[in-house]
Structure prediction request, 678 residues.
Amino acid sequence: MKITSNIKLTAIVGLIIILGLIGQVSAQTVWLDELDLSAATQGWGVPMKNKSIDNKTLTIAGKTFERGFGTHSVSSLLILLEGKATVFTAQVGIDDEVAGHEPASEFELYGDGKKLWSSGIMRLGDAARPCSVQLAGIQKLELVVADGGNGNYYDHADWADAKFETTGVTTFKTYNPVASEPYILTPQPSAAPRINSAKVFGVRPGSPFQYLVAATGDRPMTFSASGLPKGLKIDTQTGIITGSLSKAGTFEVTLGAKNAKGKAGKKLRIVCGERIALTPPMGWNSWNCFAGEVSADKVKRATEAMVKSGLINHGWTYINIDDFWQNHRDSKDQSLHGKLRDEAGNIIPNTRFGDMKTLADYVHGLGLKIGLYSSPGPWTCGGCVGSYGYEKQDAESYAKWGFDYLKYDWCSYGGVVNGMPDNDPYKVSSLSYNGGSQLATAIKPFKLMGDYLRQQPRDIVYSLCQYGMSDVWKWGDSVSGNCWRTTNDITDTWASVKNIALDQDKSATYAKPGNWNDPDMLVVGTVGWGNPHKSKLKPDEQYLHISLWSLFSSPLLIGCDMEKLDDFTLNLLTNDEVIEINQDPLGKEATCVQTVSELRVYVKELEDGGRAVGFCNFGSDIVDISYKDFEKLGLNGKFKVRDLWRQKDISNIRTQTGELMLKVPAHGVVLYKFTPVK
Ligand code: GAL
Prediction:
């Protein structure tokens, strides 16, 4: 017996030694750059192997590195470790190639959803910080570069010399947990008429009135409007109501639409007073697709596509020209060369545009409205001429040409504050935010233009663009603003959309009819800022994006090439029940009322006593739960529940006893409307 157990003992010890040796022999280094980095999502550009985002040698504070992952904040890379990595090491920092700017990022490591390490905020010139993290037992690792508080413009972030020690495996899988196949949810509109335009419309006394009865259904269709106040008339063929109202007042009108398949009616409340944009503006803007390449011809074609695609029948209205309709200070492009202003100081559009009034008339003639763009500084962000010193003339030109919307972008005003109005904001980035954090300075230029706009004999929606400085939502209304950007520019990446979405609660209570928080334009369809490509957002991310922007009561401005609308994008933008949530006359903005791990539940109160609820999954795993926390949604009694994307009632539930089975895809959404049942 004794001998046998000794033999056993020796065998076990031997085995342990052998295993130990194998372990030592097979312990292996796996470099991060050996993995498939294309699964990473990032703020801008493509994930780079052993190079920086601009395809240069990785360089942090003067030190170069041969290996590593060059990315752009906000960035995320998911790696499946399955417990087979022991340690991760790297040198992290901002790449020197962004000299002249003020990037700030934070590098973070998450293991199975828990934060394992953070670099703290890193700025340009900071020496590379060493990262060394034990990983024993970790299944899923996420490498994150988060925004360090500067709005992540120039954050070229390097994971240099990044590598794993492993238990013997020679590689790891990276993954993106979100499905890539587009799928259609919105049912086709019926052949019978349905009126989709907003239920309330604001106009000032004396201003030209234009409201289109937007309706889906077979053509020909005839329109009617009973109870129209004196001064207004409807074109029964086109459904466009025009005229003007001389006195303030509220008027209840009944709209009608009729075709061979049936008829539809809808109430419209016209409020003639001082407030306009009583529901969030909906339309298109040229920047996210054409950027500096915009022209009158492209704008006309976008207008025509808005009509031809049928989007006009769902309430999409504005055709907004962004930067580059003016002449440029020093562009090599001949079409941007020209006199900036005439002798009287009136702005002269560049030769790509020519006569702005003709363009505005054309857009109005098709039942749509038109907007444009300027800056309170001497130069726009793109270096075209701004309105500084000519605010009055510019407001008058816009009105004379017949424009309905102005986006007014801070840009070079930082130089004015600094006493250096000639400085180009793109060349001296530190100037571009200068003064924006001092309340009086932040307000001044927007108030000036706001006052001039209000003096014009037409209604011009006033959109403030200054990226949320000095809590613009607290004072935007006092300068006659109708909407204001709450964040820096959006890009077509998950990181950007998520970042912006998570940052909206702060301003939510300030939204109301005539005042909207603007988390920037929609990044669906073919976008690209002059470099067209399909939005990098996955289908579920796009459903989440549109759902959230609807819940947020945000302006809905399509940023894509309107001539390249694919079925998926068109379907995404034509769900009338989703749009109705955005256009609800009560004008409340949803906030997050509950967080269950990475599922955030957003609730928006609606005029009819119902609630729109977005179950928004920001995590990388499907959420599959039975949900019962109805009181958290502000619901009591009995409710009808409707799936808005599928336009289907799903159940009647009693809040006391009911439960909802929820399946929310990774980076996706379930959007329901709860309506009280009497
Ligand atoms: C940015 C603005 C963009 C676009 C651009 C034009 O400041 O946020 O939306 O308007 O300027 O140069």
Remarks:
- The radius of gyration is 28 Å.
- The CA atoms of residues 101 and 539 lie 34 Å apart.
